[in-house]
């Protein structure tokens, strides 16, 4: 009864404050069995909360998840003889530490940058939680419950061994890039859950992602994000630069509750460029899908973009043929193949005159293949579905690279944030290799659950821009004769941003002098604006 009267008093007080335009008090109420996000951004870096405990005779389980910065939490009991008005005065005065008051008793407290747990056989019915942060861009996720089962249901369970196994796949035919296979163990609860409830995601970044996987923040320096179904225990991350250190974070995402649990962060060091690049011929493993349904292959026309569909079945196959006619002088030719997987993972087997020449790893998005020293005959492109989803794939092939509808991007397609303010950000990128390219920038302001969108929704990689993004602007760059000989850097400023906000920025390049031009993206970058304009 007293608790109901107390809650009614708080509601009336907040309504009164709003009516007379009074600044609301600096605390609120947190309920059982509901994860609450506590935002500590700005000048208020401490907040106090009354915890609504239904039964003081029940056990008390609590998780505190820091995001953006280490969090210090404290749990206090309230003196029973304290009047309600005294209680409100003390709690609402952030300048008065509760540990200095005789009316409050410290039950427990901890400070860390990792998820913290607390358990007690029972706590008083009225307790106060204090949450502090040392950074103006921090937040915390609070969840407490009297039920251990409900606590374990809130966050995806991890196996006892949360270490990752990494294996660098070094293809010496690729001068600048390598791939890495990441493997992990899966808890039986996740593996045997209803299909689609969990997804297991991998983040590869250049900086230590201290809070990635458990929070909705994707920090800068992220190179790639890839997710697999809950039954999969490995993933291949491609396009990693040689001689670099990368941080790998794997986390399980609960699609039902919007919560995550992260494995241990693992570092990998990619090897340098091979010293002897003369060793170029390697035996290609024959990993061809067996028992293929013998359909007539699709005949591709030189220089014409084609679009095909893959059945929604793992290992379903589509065969295409491209005939290379001999030149009058019987000279060797080079055949170019571009595969643009719009919405998911595929693999490709490439045959020359019936013999397997190349077997690719799983990939999505844009991939270019080159077959050199080819006088005449036919090439067969065998595209294989790597999961159970339907695929849309664009295919272009020719012996004339100049006819390609796609731009020639630089080897380094990263976008760097070189300056940020409270309302703008400056980005730089390497110029493409074409003479006339149009660059378009798209932006999307991320809300508190944007990581859920990132790992659960797949945008069509063949479209010009994300359906949920806004076009900032486009401009055409035609390099000078001096710039053509060098890899010049381009720069632009993204304005009209809001302080203390996270934005996703996508940069797309479009050729200006090609028939039916197609856009290709640079690597996505996230930027967080400064919280205060007065500091600049």
UniProtKB/TrEMBL annotation:
GO CC annotation, single: extracellular region
Any one Gene Ontology BP term: nervous system development
Protein location: Secreted
Parts forming coiled coils: none
InterPro entries: FN3_sf, NDNF, NDNF_C, NDNF_Fn(III)_1, NDNF_N
Limits of the Protein NDNF C-terminal domain: 359-533
Residues annotated as domain Neuron-derived neurotrophic factor first Fn(III): 223-270
Pfam short name (any one): NDNF_C
Ranges where the Neuron-derived neurotrophic factor N-terminal domain occurs: 26-152
SUPFAM superfamilies named among the record's database cross-references: Fibronectin type III
Location (main, coarse): secreted
Signal peptide: 1-19
Protein origin, superkingdom: Eukaryota
Keywords attached to this entry: Glycoprotein, Neurogenesis, Repeat, Secreted, Signal
Entry protein name: Protein NDNF
